[in-house]
């Protein structure tokens, strides 16, 4: 009787543990097999976005520069001197905003676009629309003329501050 109770108790635990172990191993193998493919696809997408921001660039080199604003997560220089690309991560109303911003060698914004956002749909998410993003094209450090979106001032200001940080990063990099 005691042996039967132990079997009824221990056997399901062993079977479930074995299932968990096999599934964990299968997931680990899947991760190992797909990680390089996913990383390559992400790198290609990132290169495509950089080329859309600065189409005249013939390539980009990633820069590792200390002293940039904390919101600057990545910085690139075009290999032919057409400009710089900054990936900026800032906090909007709905969470993180990830913005890519291109700056020409004279310190003017080429173009900025949103890579990732979690803003309120239909309101704060309007920062991703062309009328808002196009305001930054050709602008230098004087961002005072940029119009915020009515009802979405937190999202708009976060975007504006992200572009300001990209311009500050450009100035710091140019001085070096």
Short key terms for the protein model shown above:
5-stranded antiparallel sheet; 2 domains; 3 helices; 5 strands; 176 residues; alpha+beta; elongated
Offer a quick outline of the entry.
With 176 residues, this protein is α+β, with helices and mostly antiparallel strands. Helix content is 44%, strand content 20%. It has three helices and five strands; from the N terminus they run H-E-E-E-E-E-H-H.
Secondary-structure map:
Elements: H1 2-53, E1 60-63, E2 72-78, E3 84-91, E4 96-103, E5 109-116, H2 130-133, H3 153-174
Antiparallel strand pairs: 1-2, 2-3, 3-4, 4-5
Helix-strand sequence:
HEEEEEHH
How do the strands of the widest beta sheet line up side by side? 1-2-3-4-5
Number of strands: 5
Mean pLDDT: 84
Q: Bin the strand percentage.
A: 15-25%
Shape: elongated
Low-confidence stretches: none
Rg estimate, integer Å: 24 Å
Class inferred from helices and paired strands: alpha+beta
Number of domains: 2
Number of alpha- plus pi-helical segments? 3
How helical, in percent, are the residues?
40-55%
Sheet with the most strands, sense and barrel status: 5 strands, antiparallel
Q: Report the end-to-end length measured between terminal Cα atoms.
A: 81 Å
Structure, explained:
By secondary structure, this protein is α+β, with helices and mostly antiparallel strands. It folds into two domains: 1-53; 58-174. The chain is built from three helices and five strands, in the order αβββββαα. It has helices spanning 2-53, 130-133, 153-174; strands at residues 60-63, 72-78, 84-91, 96-103, 109-116. It has a five-stranded antiparallel β-sheet with strand order 1-2-3-4-5, with helices on both faces. The radius of gyration is 24 Å and the shape is elongated. The N and C termini lie far apart (81 Å). 28% of the residues are buried.
């Amino acid at each position: 009787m005691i042996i039967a109770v132990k079997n009824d108790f221990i056997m399901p635990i062993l079977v479930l543990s074995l299932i968990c172990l096999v599934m964990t191993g299968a997931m680990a193998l899947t991760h190992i097999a797909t990680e390089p493919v996913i990383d390559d696809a992400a790198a290609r997408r990132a290169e495509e976005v950089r080329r859309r921001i600065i189409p005249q660039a013939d390539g980009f080199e990633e820069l590792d520069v200390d002293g940039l604003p904390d919101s600057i997560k990545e910085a690139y220089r075009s290999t032919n001197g057409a400009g710089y690309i900054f990936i900026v991560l800032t906090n909007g109303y709905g969470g993180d905003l990830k913005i890519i911003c291109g700056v020409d060698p004279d310190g003017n914004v080429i173009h900025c676009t949103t890579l990732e956002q979690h803003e309120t749909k239909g309101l704060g998410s309007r920062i991703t629309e062309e009328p808002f993003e196009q305001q930054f094209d050709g602008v230098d450090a004087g961002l005072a003329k940029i119009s915020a979106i009515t009802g979405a001032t937190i999202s708009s200001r976060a975007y504006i501050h992200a572009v300001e940080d990209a311009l500050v990063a450009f100035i710091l990099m140019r001085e070096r």
